[in-house]
Amino acid sequence: MSAQIALGTTEQGLMYAIMVLGVYLTFRILNYADLSVDGSFTLGAGTAASLIVGGTDPWVATGMAFIAGTLAGLFTGILHTKFKITPLLSGILTMTALYSINLRVMGRANISLLGSQTVFSDFTKLPFMEEYGVLVLSLVSVLFLGSIIYFFLRTELGLALRATGDNELMIRSLGVNTDLMKILGLALSNGLVAFAGSFVAQNQEFADVSMGIGMIIAGLASVIIGEVLIGTSSIGRTIIAVICGGILYRVIIAVVLQLGLAPTDLKLITSIIVITALVSPSLRKKIASWR
Amino acid sequence: MKKLLAFGLSLVLLLSLVGCGTANSTGNEEQKQLKIGIVQIVEHPALDGAREGFLETLKENGYEVGKNLTFDYQNAQGDQSILQSITQKFAAAKLDLVLAIATPSAQAMASASKDIPILITAVTDPVEAKLVNSMEKPGKNVTGTTDMNPIKEQFELMQKLVPTVKKVGIIYNAGEVNSQVQVAIAKKVATDLGLEVVEATVTTSADVLQASQSLVGKVDTIYVPTDNMVVSAAQSVVQVANKNKIPIISGESSVVDKGALATIGINYKMLGKQTGEMAIRVFKGEKPQDMPIEAQKEFDTVINQTTVDLFGITVPEDISKKAILVK
């Protein structure tokens, strides 16, 4: 019984880890608190779902979901760079706009994919893939996207992106177009989040306009948990850390459910876990200084 | 040190996952212990009512906690990603039956398990949600009850109680698919009856007050569908409508209790009880794929006497005879 739960939880964790990669890009690399994640996650899910139901090939649909996400990120970026709206507010504005846009994209509040062809239904038909197909596909996708991000962040463009988040004034004085960097980072991040949304929708076999609610919290919690447990000494290590954080976050939820804790306390427990993860480094320093 | 902590933590988590799995199996007594799961998307009077009715029917028929039944009730608190974890847990626990309350819960459970019998309730359109192949023959492991509103009967009641009505305002959350379905039907029914519909949509329960105010002066009556968001903020609609002498016809009775004029509709507790009866048939061996989706057979007419007096409405005798009056 627990093997099945462990499998399902890991599969879920890997899909949400793609979203966490996106949150990491803006939150940590760009130092930009982008709250549009709730909206772009649903945008990805809705785009993929409505295309699949309309008969499009699921991989094409997933690709379109990614592109839709990048457009959302582009919008946030333009609001911030061209119209000088603060980072927090521009993310909120995009998220608010996306609520109506998602309803338009989907045409209705809920699209069922039960029985439709999805990337997972295709993949599990391959030899040896019936039971572990979803796990393998999610794992491969996460590793693939994680590696792309890793190598990208070491290119000149990637370094300029990192510098923009680190010390904008300095890198601007060296001639980098920081506005473009921010837009690029936001587009890439939201593209990843939308991609994750399309995966989750295809796995759970439905897309609902409310499915993005709470994503930014989950994403931030995952980033923080991963960083605290695995460490941030290098970019590569941090990328692995946030991916593991995404998986771990889902594991924690599954454990809480297994322990039979009151359903109403689930959100409080999530909060306590994140607080613990945030507080433990400084707590440990304090304890060390007492010795 | 950090590595050790990380390793230790992951080990503890993994062990607890495994440990809890084995700890859940109870000792076998003479009677077969039935294990059921109940998954609900959010707390809400109608959904809670359905769940209570379901458990009541089971108890009345001898299925009691502690005797021969264990149930695990999980509420996703509106977070659909938690819904995934809940349905995965249920699927892995090899339960005898799962009750899924509301459309997202039903969809998540149907995706998580293709063999555990799933009973759905409070789902407006099971065919549209692809939960079943057809209402008469589900063809899968899913069956249950639908809460599709008798909208035509409700609009006819509206015309009988307020004969002068020409324009009807409808407040709803466009993000709820059950509301979208109802509004589409309502618009057709209204056209057939010669009425005009004015829509007001909301996205949060805080918008409901303003949406109600926007209808003042534009409509003769207001219709409140079985919309989770508007029903939870029903007080705001009632406040505005009763102050401006606009009668409200609602899709279900909890809004009438709060001050709406009347409804002829679903009693969610009775719907839950009906679902409970279907569950007992499954326990006795019937297969969900052959059990048609049931709708509520008899509808309750509920009228709020205080509101009738407030508006000075005369209720036709044939209606007041079989109506339940509330204050």
What is the mean predicted local confidence, pLDDT of chain A? 89
Count of individual domains of chain B? 2
Give the percentage of residues in beta strands of chain B. 15-25%
Helix content of chain A: over 70%
Q: Could you give the order of strands across the largest sheet of chain A?
A: 1-2
Level-1 CATH class name of chain A: Mainly Alpha
| Number of helices, counting only DSSP H or I runs of 4 residues or more of chain A | 12
Number of domains of chain A: 1
Largest interface: A-B, 49 and 52 residues
Structural category of chain A is mainly alpha
Strand coverage percent of chain A: under 5%
Largest sheet strand order of chain B: 2-1-3-4-5-11
CATH topology of chain A: ABC transporter involved in vitamin B12 uptake, BtuC
Main structural class of chain B = alpha/beta
Find the count of extended strands of chain B (DSSP E, 2+ residues). Answer: 13
Number of strands of chain A: 2
